[in-house]
Amino acid sequence: MTAPSAPSVPSAPAAAPVPVRAGSPELLRSVFRQHAAGVAVITAVDGVRPVGFTATSLNSVSADPPLLSFSIGTGSSSWPAIAASDHLGVHILAEEQHELAGLFARSGADRFGDRTGWRPGPEGVPVLDGVLAWLVCRVVARVPAGEHRVVIAEAVAGHSLGDGRTEGRPLLYHQGRFNALRD
Predict the structure, then answer these.
(1) Closest CA to 176 of 74, 35, 23, 25
(2) For residue 110, what are the CA distances in angstroms to 82, 95, 119, 127, 147?
(3) 111: enclosing H helix or E strand
(4) How many CB atoms lie within 10 A of CB 44?
(5) Position 168 confidence tier, pLDDT thresholds 50, 70, 90
(6) Structural domains of the chain sorted by starting position, each given as residue range(s) with its CATH number in brackets
(7) Which residues contact 142 (CB under 8 A, 6 or more apart)?
(8) Does 164 score more than 70 pLDDT?
């Protein structure tokens, strides 16, 4: 008696060989240009002066406790304030806020000038006006990662428009440009 044969699975057509590149900064940049990321602005206080920068590296880490992470280069003008701050602000930008994202991404810009609506929030952290959502977070760790630091922070206060399903649409970063969602 012979065992029943397994059903045949059609084989995929042979694909052309794909060139493989060695890991490098250029390869990583090329790959992450394909990855759409949400756009956030991180703020802190440097003595009495507000500072901030645009980040696309924001991640949710844990719901309980409510932790998030982002990365920042140690050569960034905002790094000294982030390195010294106990608390910082995290702002989720709306799709129409590409100019604000560009302002906070530009080196040497007057980020908290007349064009930027903001106010001191909990713990004295600068809170931007008109964003989809914001959090004030307590820094719990700064982890070395090459020429960057991964900052892990716990949300202690904040505000979000609506229920997260009905209000506003987020700004995205893809292929080196700020973009909006498409339906």
Answers:
(1) 35
(2) 18, 22, 16, 16, 25
(3) none
(4) 24
(5) confident
(6) 37-180 (2.30.110.10)
(7) 82, 83, 149, 150, 151, 152
(8) no
